[in-house]
Design brief:
Structural class of chain B: mainly beta
Shape of chain B: globular
Number of helices of chain B: 0
Structural class of chain A: mainly beta
Strand content of chain B: over 45%
Number of helices of chain A: 0
Largest sheet of chain B: 7 strands, mixed
Shape of chain A: globular
Largest interface: A-B, 22 and 22 residues
Order of helices and strands of chain A: EEEEEEEEEEE
Largest sheet of chain A: 6 strands, mixed
Oligomer: heterodimer
Number of strands of chain A: 11
Distance between the termini of chain B: 36 Å
Distance between the termini of chain A: 40 Å
Number of strands of chain B: 11
Radius of gyration of chain B: 13 Å
Amino acid sequence: GQNIDQPTEMTATEGAIVQINCTYQTSGFNGLFWYQQHAGEAPTFLSYNVLDGLEEKGRFSSFLSRSQGYSYLLLKELQMKDSASYLCAVVDSGAGSYQLTFGKGTKLSVIP
Amino acid sequence: DAGVIQSPRHEVTEMGQEVTLRCKPISGHNSLFWYRQTMMRGLELLIYFNNNVPIDDSGMPEDRFSAKMPNASFSTLKIQPSEPRDSAVYFCASSLGGTHSNQPQHFGDGTRLSIL
């Protein structure tokens, strides 16, 4: 099975930087996704990491350390529209088939 | 490009009734996923199809739930009989690529299901 942990809620100020952490346990790691989900809407893809290191995409960056079972999503120059839930999802192929499991998400509130 | 299309957007029905949720994946995508999302349990994978074939249905809660994918452009998730605890948002998603894919999933807008 898998265990994915994220903080339940975070609050940050407009213009600031925030880091959302995700830790996981898998039997056969095969990649990690970050999704953004605004209230009442569908999740949308943000990033994918399969190798160690930092992937940068505009104001958003995602980091992965496979040895530590750890990832984070970094949001810079926060805007009010960044208020949303951020879901970490891990691909596990340890059982011989594709398994994508989502964490419960981190609800980020951006305040003025 | 049209995204994943789900219907209905909202469904309110009485317990014991049959509920059918529908999904049209993005054209050309060969993997389709059904999820259920609740506050308590988050986003849970119910079943996924690859090339119209069910690959893993271990997330389907019980025999009251069934899913079909008769062709590459249509899938249904059926609950019969429905119960109040089935109330949730049900998402359908599709992606390009089969198992071990690094391709992101594209989600539909979801069906908000309320069982009274």
